[in-house]
Predict the structure.
Amino acid sequence: MISVLNSRNRRTNLAFTLVELLVVIAIIGILIALLLPAVQAAREAARQIQCSNNLKQLALGLHTYHEAYTTFPAAGYCGATNYAGCHTWMESLLAYIEEIAVYDRLDFHIQLNQPPNSSALLDYVFPGGKCPSDTLPALLDN
């Protein structure tokens, strides 16, 4: 008879009660709630580092351009009177910030009577020109 009681007690001691299970779930929930803000803060710090790295790459590109031409690129310029294309400093800088494929697609000598062959680049968004935390759209209407 004693051996039967011992086996019954062992079986009941091995199981979890509903209260113990709820306590464990509550503890896990509290730990997750404490962990989420830390993860979000780490992601925001990574976004800030990426943004500052983008600015650093632009500065390095400007200095590389300066080494090649002993001057910084003009803010904007238009071609001679028989050329219609106007360009910005950013287009001049593309070759120096690892965007040589995009730079090669630009045509800096468009004649007035010719349609531009670089119109496919009108919707191009330079990936390093926008910080990851920025909420504005990549291309603005104006």
About this structure: Strands lie at 76-78, 86-88. The mean pLDDT is 77. The radius of gyration is 31 Å.
